[in-house]
Design brief:
Rossmann fold; alpha+beta; 5 domains; 18 strands; Arc Repressor Mutant, subunit A
Length: 624
């Protein structure tokens, strides 16, 4: 535990504490904060942070600014008068608060944690890392049992575990409450009034408590029972037509409250972002009625999809503001929790070394994505069962670095369907952004589409408000003093699918446009971004210009006395040269030999002894 001011950084559980209250941070912001806290009082450069947290991956430095904004918000830190994180412009960051080491926090066991730990093998698999959320739901259930009606929204991105949490909570209730569930369905769900409500009522009437439910509905809300096809014969003749919708809604509310008076009732509505307006009206009415009721409405939805539904967003905000509802947002899994998830999925406690780290990095803590990555490792033969009959458990057969970088098939198909539901223009905007990396500037998307950057920025802002795939992350100052917004994909897998779905010829042209725009933006300072320019020319297969940019980047590294970097860039230039025609390749090799000799002269003139020459660089020169 690292203590600073009133905060404690719990490196074992990968969370932040403040005055004994736990604060859950997403994996990357936590990793950034941890690195700074573990290196207090000194400059941590942008490159050092990127190398430490994104090894062997090219990431835009601007992404750090996004995480710093998030951390400062959590820490209540002011960038202009920092108490914790000081920004050193164009260089990096320094953690300025005193840091002390403390024993790890021992959290008291909760009922939810005890139930998770004691779940028998025959029961459904326990969820991981959700003890705090389960405890909060249990507290709402206790208030409900006391006659205080509850409405709780459970939110989070696709695959984060909303349904798993609700399932675990409902199992915790056992026979103490009746549970009725309704699933909102994309497409026709919004056009059919009360679609998830009718499904929940059907389940309720067919459950062990169905006789009570049917009896109450027949007396207080016969129109609803008739719609279910369960109206008793004795009432069919006297019930000619339904009352107005307002009366029907009031009837159903009264019936649900009376059913709950006999036994607490939990209504679960999943994927509320696809709900029809009438269902939202019912939730609103149930929340606002003043009579005591042992009733809990539990609704799940994806926050960005809800943002596109003004009615749902308005309902949630209004209920939260009036304290008629509560919200639980699910965060990604921590590394220790990922270890538990993988152990559960593989059925063994001891995991191959670095498996949890690899899966966590590629899934960013999303359980659904993590399981897809795990299945991908098994399908590629990286993980295999050991022993003649596979009895000794799973073991690693080949390095994780050799794994195909493609998104696992089923996960890619799921994301592809999500992309195809967008309009063609939205798809092109996102595809244009995917040419850079997880973070991309508006000017790059504008370069790909050959359009005005200001107009593209407006469109991307609107897109970020409507979708969960991308969000605005800040602004960057360009060399000419102008500013350009930059954006971040919600997850690397979105960017990867968007990138790979484009035809290779279109991708190549787009990469060239980005490289050329970079050159124009940094005119006169091209060497500062020569490595990035080279990446785009390589991706486009423009080998001569890729080699030229790499050599410029090597020269820039040499000027900064970054000899290892210069060595790596020249080696990469030689690999690119393999794609050139024989005569061009030979000419390039000779030029690199001359540049190598110049590098040796520079190195020899440095005061460091000859023995400090990196062996790899020495071998490289000898090989040439």
């Amino acid at each position: 535990m690292k203590q600073f001011d009133s905060f404690g950084l719990d490196t074992s559980n990968e969370c932040l504490w403040r005055n004994n209250a736990q604060i859950t941070l997403p994996p990357k912001p936590f990793a950034v904060l941890r690195y700074l806290v573990e290196n207090p009082g000194r400059l941590v450069t942008h490159d050092e942070l990127l190398d430490a947290l994104w090894p062997e991956t090219f990431v835009q430095p601007q992404v750090l600014r996004t995480y710093m904004l998030e951390l400062r918000k959590v820490l209540e830190d002011d960038a202009r008068n920092p108490r914790f994180i000081q920004t050193l412009p164009k260089r990096g960051y320094r953690f300025v608060a005193p840091v002390t080491d403390l024993p790890p926090v021992e959290r008291p066991a909760t009922l939810a944690e005890a139930v998770i730990a004691a779940t028998p093998a025959a029961a459904p698999a326990p969820i991981v890392d959700r003890a705090n959320e389960l405890s909060r739901l249990e507290a709402h259930a206790q208030r409900m049992a006391g006659g205080h009606r509850q409405v709780v929204f459970v939110t989070g991105e696709t695959g984060i575990g909303k349904t798993a949490l609700v399932d675990a909570f409902c199992r915790l209730q056992g026979s103490q409450a009746s549970v009725a569930r309704g699933q909102c369905v994309q497409g026709f769900g919004r056009d059919e009034a009360y679609y998830p409500v009718m499904e929940a009522l059907g389940q309720l009437c067919s459950s062990a408590d169905g006789e009570l439910a049917c009896r109450v509905l027949a007396r207080l809300a016969p129109a609803w029972l008739a719609a279910l096809g369960r109206l008793p014969e004795s009432l069919e003749g006297s019930f000619a037509r339904p009352a107005p919708q307002e009366r029907l809604l009031a009837d159903l509310c009264a019936a649900l409250e009376e059913i709950a008076a006999e036994k607490p009732l939990i209504l679960v509505f999943e994927d509320l972002h696809w709900a029809d307006e009438a269902t939202l009206d019912l939730i609103s009415a149930l929340a606002r009625r003043r009579a005591p009721a042992r009733l809990l409405v539990l609704a799940t939805f994806r926050p960005h999809d809800a943002a596109s539904r003004h009615r749902l967003k308005e309902l949630r905000q209004d209920l939260l503001m009036r304290r008629l509802g509560a919200s639980i947002e699910l965060a990604p899994l921590s590394r220790p929790a990922m270890q538990q998830l993988l152990a559960r999925e593989l059925g063994q406690g001891a995991l191959p070394a670095e498996l949890a780290e690899f899966v966590h990095r590629h899934s960013e803590g999303n359980p659904l994505f993590a399981i897809a990555v795990l299945e991908h490792l098994i399908a590629q033969g990286v993980l295999v069962r050991g022993g003649a009959n596979g009895e000794s458990g799973w073991r690693q057969r080949s390095p994780f670095a050799a794994v195909d970088a493609a998104v696992p098939g089923e996960l890619a198909q799921m994301i592809e369907l999500e992309i195809e539901r967008l309009g063609e223009r939205d798809q092109r905007l996102l595809e244009a952004g995917s040419l850079m990396n997880v973070a991309f500037p508006a000017w790059a998307a504008a370069a790909v589409l050959e359009e005005d950057a200001i107009g593209i920025e407006d469109e991307l802002d609107a897109l970020a408000r409507r979708l969960n795939m991308v969000k605005r992350a800040g602004e960057d100052e360009l060399p000419d003093g102008s500013r350009s917004a930059f954006y971040v994909f919600a997850h690397e897998v979105y960017r990867e699918v968007l990138y790979r779905r484009q035809p290779p010829s279109r991708r190549a042209k787009s990469h060239i446009r980005v490289a050329e725009r970079l050159g124009r933006i940094f005119a006169g300072r091209e060497t500062a971004v020569a490595r990035e320019i080279a990446i785009h020319y390589e991706a486009a297969g423009d080998w001569p210009r890729a080699a030229s940019a790499l050599r410029a980047a090597a020269q820039h590294a040499l000027e900064r006395q970054a000899l290892s970097e210069a060595e790596e860039l020249l080696e990469r230039t030689l690999r690119v040269a393999e794609n050139l025609r024989d005569a061009d390749r030979q000419a390039l090799i000779e030029e690199i030999q001359n540049e190598s000799a110049a590098m040796r002269q520079v190195f020899a003139a440095m005061p460091a002894p000859r023995s400090s020459l990196p062996k790899k660089l020495d071998d490289f020169w000898t090989g040439i």
